[in-house]
Amino acid sequence: MKKTVYLLIAGTVLSLSACKSSQNAYKQAYEKAVSGDEAKAVIEEPVTQNEAARAEDVSNVSVREEKVSVVSGEKDIKAYGIVCGSYSLKTNADALRERLVNDGYKAVVVVNEAGKTYRVICASFDTKDEAVAERNRFKARYPDNQDFQSAWILYRK
Question: pTM for the complete prediction?
Answer without folding.
Answer: 0.64
